[in-house]
Write a structure and sequence with these properties.
This protein has 246 residues and is α/β, with parallel strands linked by helices. It has one domain: NAD(P)-binding Rossmann-like Domain (Rossmann fold). Helix 1 links the parallel strand 1 and strand 2. It is globular, with a radius of gyration of 17 Å. Bound molecules: acetoacetyl-coenzyme A.
Length: 246
């Protein structure tokens, strides 16, 4: 497979780390952004000791200026972005009748507006080079809704609406645009759900366990090779059978 430049947002998190490693294993040059300097440097040290050289760029995906600055710096350090994985995301879980404006806007800015902020600066280059992959990391909860996640589910459902529109606009330019919708994966984000609530959720997963970050990285990698050129606008569920809607 040809070597490409991949930008994975939120690469220092649980799922993001697994995606960075898998794309590097496949021979791509990988970059990610970070916000917390100490956490990022510690992460980079661990990655290096495991043999991974991932470019790290400081920046926030939640504003257009932040997105543009991240892309410019990745392009300077590594090269034009061929593969964009919109993975960065946060939760601010609470029932809607108690939701404060900032709990709504932080989630929408980081999980949904980031998709505009990051994709807008890379799409023109992909169109010119006639090759690109844009992959949204959405969520099972964007497909089925979730008690306590009106903000998150709205953002995650919105990501797939973006996918299926961008896929149509760019199919003739060798660019595919797809969504991966993970179920509950054993990351810090899911472990932050109170234990008794989490136990009830796990009880609803037919595989009887949380997913592994690598199981999401595998789904992401599926969309990347040239052989996947016919697959665009898809939403690939990777959720242990918890939700099997169309
Ligand atoms: N359906 C129906 N009722 C529910 C419910 C559900 N799923 N969950 C809770 N309730 C009810 C409770 O039974 C309770 O009712 P009573 O007062 O009559 O006993 C009431 O709602 C309040 O529940 P809590 O005590 O849990 O309320 P809270 O305000 O303390 O917390 C919450 C609410 C923050 C939403 C908490 O329940 C929670 O964290 N839920 C999990 C949310 C979740 O799944 N987040 C996913 C995070 S991981 C992620 O997002 C990754 C991904 O993509 C999958």
């Amino acid at each position: 497979m040809s070597e490409r430049v991949a930008l994975v947002t939120g690469g220092t998190g649980g799922i993001g780390t697994a995606i960075c490693r898998r794309l590097a294993d496949l021979g791509h040059k990988v970059a990610t952004n970070y916000r917390n300097e100490d956490k990022a440097r510690e992460w980079q040290g661990k990655m290096r000791s495991d043999g991974y050289d991932i470019a790290l760029v400081k920046g926030d995906v939640s504003s257009p200026e932040g997105g543009a600055a991240i892309v410019a710096e990745v392009e300077r350090q590594v090269g034009p972005v061929d593969i964009l994985v919109n993975n960065a995301g946060i939760t601010r879980d609470t029932t809607f009748h108690k939701m404060r404006p900032e709990q709504w806007s932080e989630v929408i800015n980081t999980n949904l507006n980031s998709v505009y902020n990051m994709t807008r600066p890379v799409i023109e280059g992909m169109r010119q080079r006639q090759w690109g992959r844009v992959i949204q990391i959405s969520s099972i909860n964007g497909q089925k809704g979730q008690y306590g996640q009106a903000n998150y589910a709205a953002a995650k459902a919105g990501m797939h609406g973006f996918t299926i529109s961008l896929a149509q606009e760019n199919a003739r330019f060798g660019i595919t645009v797809n969504t991966v919708s993970p179920g509950y994966i054993g990351t810090d984000m899911v472990m932050a759900v109170p234990e008794e609530v989490r136990a009830k959720i796990v009880a609803q997963i037919p595989t009887g366990r949380l997913g592994l970050p690598d199981e999401i990285a595998y789904a992401v990698a599926f969309f990347i090779p040239d052989e996947a050129a016919w697959i665009t606008g898809a939403n690939l569920s990777a959720n242990g059978g918890q939700y099997m809607g169309w």
